[in-house]
């Protein structure tokens, strides 16, 4: 079985990608979320490279390439963006808003859905086997034009990532004073390399998506102009990311912020930002609100948010948020337009995630049960 030198380079890139992804995933050094985000990016790139360069030596390999979703390009862009966020803010976590950005992976699976539909129809006797080439043509056309949203997605997220890297780190006041801001020079260089890769991809994409030039272009160059640079990027990004993780104290960074003296002006600014996040931006309406989400919103590490609330506001994070939710419930109870709503329905609209949590928080804050409060208000009116 002969393998061309270019295919061998891509396959070696895939192999080193799987090795580096595994090392990053199991590493206990540095920020675990950062390591696993980068491991996922490298693993997906390695899987794509394997799908492109693996020699087809029997029908089972061909079947796997046709019907298994080995190429998942859409999640790469947001994952790189989240990786950047996690490097800049050790308190960053993946919430629902972040997970939603990964859903476009379904675009990568479109041609496979078509193939699975054909197999299901064939198995049920609804589709003749002679229609196979026509279904295969539809799958190929789908894969071809899906590269357009893939390229656009990468370009948009690269812009967001570049903008994020130009901003100061969330806890810049304290971290600069400590001299512990992360060294991201290698990653900034890598983003510039990916921007150059985007240009190469666009040059390859234009003749590829035009039917009259597609066959001649692929016969001449294949996928080598895209996947050989990817093999190089896998090695560079994986190795640099692994070395960065080993040398980074990121896991303990946000904890050290809480035990360090915070200037009075920083505390005042933090309290103002947290108050505005509740009163103006109404973050408390999010039933899944966490200290990490608030920290990202006000650009402070979660440990700093908790420290300021506990030491200066004299409230826990949950008590601080629930106070705003309870005030919102009280306002809703006095609104005649809400007479058709149940107390639980109003509580859920105001950010509580369950009746039990609402009942407990209300009594802790007011000294009364919600029912007692309503009866008191009715008697007063």
UniProtKB/TrEMBL annotation:
<dbReference type="GO" id="GO:0043565">
    <property type="term" value="F:sequence-specific DNA binding"/>
</dbReference>
<feature type="transmembrane region" description="Helical">
    <location>
        <begin position="186"/>
        <end position="210"/>
    </location>
</feature>
<keyword id="KW-0804">Transcription</keyword>
<keyword id="KW-0238">DNA-binding</keyword>
<dbReference type="InterPro" id="IPR020449">
    <property type="entry name" value="Tscrpt_reg_AraC-type_HTH"/>
</dbReference>
<feature type="transmembrane region" description="Helical">
    <location>
        <begin position="105"/>
        <end position="128"/>
    </location>
</feature>
<keyword id="KW-0805">Transcription regulation</keyword>
<dbReference type="GO" id="GO:0003700">
    <property type="term" value="F:DNA-binding transcription factor activity"/>
</dbReference>
<dbReference type="Pfam" id="PF12833">
    <property type="entry name" value="HTH_18"/>
</dbReference>
<keyword id="KW-0472">Membrane</keyword>
<feature type="transmembrane region" description="Helical">
    <location>
        <begin position="37"/>
        <end position="57"/>
    </location>
</feature>
<protein>
    <submittedName>
        <fullName>AraC family transcriptional regulator</fullName>
    </submittedName>
</protein>
<feature type="domain" description="HTH araC/xylS-type">
    <location>
        <begin position="268"/>
        <end position="376"/>
    </location>
</feature>
<dbReference type="InterPro" id="IPR018060">
    <property type="entry name" value="HTH_AraC"/>
</dbReference>
<dbReference type="InterPro" id="IPR018062">
    <property type="entry name" value="HTH_AraC-typ_CS"/>
</dbReference>
<keyword id="KW-1133">Transmembrane helix</keyword>
<feature type="transmembrane region" description="Helical">
    <location>
        <begin position="222"/>
        <end position="239"/>
    </location>
</feature>
<keyword id="KW-0812">Transmembrane</keyword>
<feature type="transmembrane region" description="Helical">
    <location>
        <begin position="6"/>
        <end position="25"/>
    </location>
</feature>
<dbReference type="InterPro" id="IPR009057">
    <property type="entry name" value="Homeodomain-like_sf"/>
</dbReference>
